[in-house]
Amino acid sequence: MEPLESQRDDEMLFMELALRVKMRQEFNRQLGPVSFALASRGKSLEISVPAGLGHILYVLAESDADYSVLPAKILDIINKQ
Predict the structure, then answer these.
(1) Which long-range contacts (CB under 8 A, 24 or more apart) does 33-42 make?
(2) What class, spelled out in words, does domain 7-80 have in CATH?
(3) Nearest-angstrom CA–CA distance, 1 and 43
(4) Long-range interactions of 30-39: CB distance < 8 A, separation 24+
(5) Secondary structure percentages of the chain, helix, strand, coil, to 5
(6) How deeply is 16 buried, as exposed, middle or buried, from its count of CB atoms within 10 A (0-12, 13-18, 19+)?
(7) pLDDT tens for each residue of 22-72
């Protein structure tokens, strides 16, 4: 994927991602922890994966990527680490 137009846009994207991850944690007790979150956009597929110690793995893929398979592959890679 091409980078966004500016560093400011990149920063805004990552701040929004961090906020979404933090908001989802509010429901961990009732629903269980999030394994991954997926957003399908017109030009891309976004997958965020909590990676422990407050880290977030952010994957941006082409919009035609197989979203029924890609998250499982990412989790497999992370869990083998």
Answers:
(1) 35/71, 35/75, 36/71, 36/74, 36/75, 38/67, 38/71, 40/67
(2) alpha beta
(3) 9
(4) 35/71, 35/75, 36/71, 36/74, 36/75, 38/67, 38/71
(5) 40, 20, 35
(6) exposed
(7) 999 999 999 999 999 999 999 999 999 988 788 899 999 999 999 999 999
Domain ranges, ordered by start, for the chain: 7-80
Backbone angles phi, psi at 48, to 5 degrees: -120, 135
DSSP sequence for 31-59 = H---S-EEEE-SSEEEEEEE-STT-EEEE
